[in-house]
Amino acid sequence: MNKYQAVIIGFGKAGKTLAVTLAKAGWRVALIEQSNAMYGGTCINIGCIPTKTLVHDAQQHTDFVRAIQRKNEVVNFLRNKNFHNLADMPNIDVIDGQAEFINNHSLRVHRPGRNLEIHGEKIFINTGAPSRGSANSWNYHHAWCI
């Protein structure tokens, strides 16, 4: 079983900031992310950054195909940068897989091919959550109804 002082589930803004802070303080840290397409979290991959990139290109009257291509380039660049900012630090292990609690200090990480068991003195859950709209809210699901 791999042993860490801190295990962080989720590679979003809070998780990556906490991982770097603890690693710089000398802690041995594992950062678990279930999808390598989400390194860096929602903002970088499917939220703020892609949206603002597309809005900017729309304001510039950029061709749609080129705008999508540029959005993908920006997102891929930032995702890779976020991954290497953590994975290249000596005290951080980035682990792809889905975490499941075995007990208060142990996790089973389900990975293609083989599972890992990880022990953490401290375990931080940074998985995010879906937004909860109100009865009067409007979202992208409604756009298809217009």
UniProtKB/TrEMBL annotation:
Record keywords, A-Z: Disulfide bond, FAD, Flavoprotein, NADP, Oxidoreductase, Redox-active center
The keyword ATP-binding appears for this protein: no
Cited SUPFAM superfamilies: FAD/NAD(P)-binding domain
Annotated ranges, domain FAD/NAD(P)-binding: 4-132
Family, as annotated: Belongs to the class-I pyridine nucleotide-disulfide oxidoreductase family.
Protein name as annotated: Putative pyridine nucleotide-disulfide oxidoreductase
Cofactors demanded by this protein: FAD
Lineage: Bacteria, Pseudomonadati, Pseudomonadota, Gammaproteobacteria, Enterobacterales
EC number: 1.16.1.1
GO molecular function, a single term: NAD(P)H dehydrogenase (quinone) activity
InterPro entries reported for this sequence: FAD/NAD-bd_sf, FAD/NAD-binding_dom, Pyr_OxRdtase_I_AS
